[in-house]
Amino acid sequence: MKATYFYPILSCLLFLSGCNKDSDLMVEAPSFDIVDYVVRDGIDSLGNPVQQIVFNLEGNADLISFYSGEVFHEYTYRDGHVIGVDALTMSFEYMATLVDNPDPAWNQLSVHATNSFDGTVTETGEGWTDITARFAIPKAQDVTARTTTSADISDLLVSGKPLYIAFKYITPPRAVGEGYTTWDIHEFKVNAQTLLGVGTVVNQRDAALPLYHFGPDDATTPGRSARTVTAPTRLRFRANILPENIPFMAGVWAVAPPIVMESEIDLGPDRPTGIKGRIDPVLKEYAYVYDKPGTYQVAFVASNVTTKGEAKVVKELDIIVP
Predict the structure, then answer these.
(1) Would you tell me how many other CB atoms lie within 10 Å of the CB of residue 132?
(2) What does the pLDDT look like over 111-131, one tens digit per residue?
(3) Fewest beta carbons less than 10 Å away: which of 32, 72, 159, 180?
(4) CB-based contacts of 149, cutoff 8 Å, min separation 6
């Protein structure tokens, strides 16, 4: 008889056990909220007076993390933060010096761009786009002082391809004794403007621009030094002066290192600051010091965590930092 009752009882126990499994897997959501915030005078770690934003909190949770709403700490970008390149600006300084009355009609200096450069150049510059007009470079005879010029070149970026910038200097065929113009380039750089500020991606001072010649070159004659010279502090273009070379078109390209960047930059996810752990006491208030005044959207993420899982609540609040 005892065996007769054993199996129904066992079945009931198994049934009850099965009923409890779903509830065992459930983690209770935290009871947590932001009551309000106040601005309070405080002292930082160096003893300097600061204004603290003090958040008054209620409830509790095993873990609490805080997004301040500042750049890199925004809850909106918790899964990833992509920013755009607002502007790509090229700038340089130029100076021209007339030597022995050259032809004033000459346009010896020009600026070019391409997304494909194999290390070879020609007089006509196949594959290069002339962007000189963006910089309003005058005729050499009208240059009276070292002058700075700049232009936005953001539109020249092509996704997945490098951008090359080059200065091209030519000397048309001329008679013996006819002059030329020396052009100097200083402080060439390319800056990228993003949400994070301005960063330099190419700088002449970091390395001299490599030179690529076409046509005859005085420097190939034994005992003759290069007419055009490149250095981090100055790029100087000068024409051939040997009688056997000046009747011919000649020139040189100075090509900057490739600019490799996309129109958008993936910064990865924004990260919070952990402000309470499981063994910490109940957090009634939290104080934070902002570097700059403004309006911020803060977020507190409160979580209860067990071996069975996690439950969390997110509380957001817009604040004004004076």
Answers:
(1) 15
(2) 999 999 998 888 888 899 999
(3) 159
(4) 91, 92, 93, 94, 135, 136, 137
Q: What is the pLDDT of residues 42-101, one digit of tens each?
A: 888 888 888 899 999 999 999 999 999 999 999 999 999 888 888 999 999 999 998 877
3-state secondary structure of 112: strand
> According to CATH, what is the number of the domain 25-79+269-321?
2.60.40.10
The residue ranges of every structural domain in the chain are: 25-79+269-321, 84-265
- In whole angstroms, how large is the CA radius of gyration of the chain? 34
Q: Which positions ≥6 away from 74 have C-beta within 8 Å? A: 67, 81, 270, 297
Encode burial over 58-70: b for 16+ CB neighbours within 10 A, e otherwise. Answer: ebbbbbbbbbbbb
Q: What is the pTM of this model?
A: 0.67
Instruction: Give the three-state DSSP class for 124.
Output: coil
Q: What confidence tens digit (pLDDT) does each residue in 201-237 have?
A: 999 999 999 999 999 999 999 989 899 999 999 999 9
Spell out the alpha helix ranges (H) of the chain.
Answer: 2-25
Residue 95 CB burial class (10 angstroms; 0-12, 13-18, ≥19): middle
Spatial contact of 319 and 39, defined as CB atoms under 8 Å apart: no
Two tokens at 207? Answer: 């390395």
Binned at pLDDT 50, 70 and 90, residue 316 comes out as very high
**Nearby residues of 264 by Cβ (< 8 Å), 6 or more positions away:** 82, 83, 84, 85
Phi then psi for 77, rounded to 5 degrees? -105, 30
Contact 121, 78 (CB under 8 A): no
